[in-house]
Amino acid sequence: MIESPCTKVCTLDARSGICLGCARTIGEIAQWTAMSDAQRRRVMAELPARRAANAQTPAARATG
Length: 64
Description:
- The protein is mostly helical.
- The protein is built from three helices and no strands.
- The longest helix has 19 residues, at 37-55.
- It is globular, with a radius of gyration of 12 Å.
């Protein structure tokens, strides 16, 4: 089983809908335990790009 990427920083960016802690969407967070390993791997593979994109936003730079 693939562990959750949760960092216990559960704050959703209002503009992107991405969690500032783990970079998942609210739907992905809610469905994590019901996802297959393949679905979890797909999400995990997308997280680095989401983090990078979110770090480039003005709001993320102001709070980060």
